[in-house]
Amino acid sequence: MSDSECLFNRVFNEDAITGLQRIPDGSIDLILTDPPYGLGKDYGNDSDKQEAADYLAWTERWIDAALPKLKPTGSLYIFLTWRYSPEIFVMLKQRMTMINEIIWDRRVPSMGGSTRSFSSVHDTIGLFVKSKNYYFDLDAVRIPYDAATKKARSRSIFVGAKWLELGYNPKDLWSVSRLHKEDAERVEHPTQKPLEIIQRMVLASCPENGVVLDPFLGSGTTAIAARRCGRQFVGFELNPEYCAIIEARLQSAEAELQVLNNQPTEPVRAKPVLKKASKVSKVDKRTSKTTPVLTKAKAEGVKTTVRKKSVVALET
C-alpha cells in the first residue's frame, strides 16, 4: 500500500492547510467542499469569524494548497453565498475553467427575514475543472421521466431516444429542501448539506473507486456520500466533536454502499411497425374519377397523406 493510499478513507482532526501538505499532488479526482462562508457561524471555533480581507486571503491560501492535489481530469465543487462568491469565483477563474454556477434553492418558507432586503433563500455552488478533459458522467445523474411523461412522448420519433429512456440532464437550479431537525440524516451541525446534493456531485464528477477530498468535512456528508457511491475519501475537520459525529456516521447503516441505479424500471419499448392499410375506391362526384382512400386507416385513427395516386399511412 502506497503512502497516499494510507491517507485515504480517513478523517483528520487538523487544519486543512497543514494537512493538505501530506496529500500527494495529482492524487485526487474531486474536491468537494463547503468551507466557512465568512458569516460568523459558530463551528466551535473562530474559523468563520474573520474580516472580509482576512477571509478572502485565507480562502486564497487554502485554494492554492488544495488545487495541486487534483488530477488533470479533476474537478472542484465549492459551496458559497452571494456575499463572497463573486470575489472567490474570479479568484478561481484565474486558476481553473468554470463550467457551472449552480443555484441550490433551499426551499425556505416565505416568512420572516429582513424588512430592508429580499430574503436570501439559496446557496451558490461553483463547478470548476482543471482541464478540458475533465471527468463527467451525465448518465449517472440523469433524472428519469415519469410514466405519464414517457407516454406523452410515445411517437415513433422519440422511441429509443437515450434522453427519453434514461432521463433528462439536471439543470443548474437544484430545488432540494434544507435539512430540518426531524430529518433522519440531520446531526448537530449548523450548515449540514443534504446527501441528495452531495451524492449527485460525487456520481457525476468522480469515477468509481476515485478519491474525493473535502478540506472542511463539517458533519461528514462528503465522506458518507463517497462511501455510499463506492468512492474513496479524505478530509480534514478542526472541531473534534464534529470528527466524532463523522466517525459515528461512517460506522452506521447510512454509510453502507448503495446500489444506485438511475435506470428507469420500464423496459425500452421496441419501435412500432407501420400498419399497412387496404385500399378502396371512392368516386369523386365533381370529376367522376376514382381516388384511392384508406377507410380502415382512418377508422383506426391513422393520419393519411395523399400523393396523387398513392397514399402513405403515418402513425401518430
Automatic annotation (TrEMBL):
Q: Which Pfam families match?
A: N6_N4_Mtase (PF01555)
Superkingdom field: Bacteria
Q: Where, by residue number, does the polypeptide cross the bilayer?
A: none
Keyword Transferase listed? The answer is yes
Q: Where is the DNA methylase N-4/N-6 domain?
A: 28-247
Specify the enzyme's EC class, one word: transferase
EC number(s) reported in the record: 2.1.1.-
Ordered alphabetically, the record's keywords are: Methyltransferase, Transferase
**Record-linked InterPro entries:** DNA_methylase_N4/N6, DNA_methylase_N6_adenine_CS, RM_Methyltransferase, SAM-dependent_MTases_sf
Work out whether the entry's keyword set contains Transferase.
Answer: yes
List the signal peptide residues.
none
Family, as annotated: Belongs to the N(4)/N(6)-methyltransferase family.
The protein in question is named Methyltransferase
Please name the source species.
Answer: Undibacterium flavidum
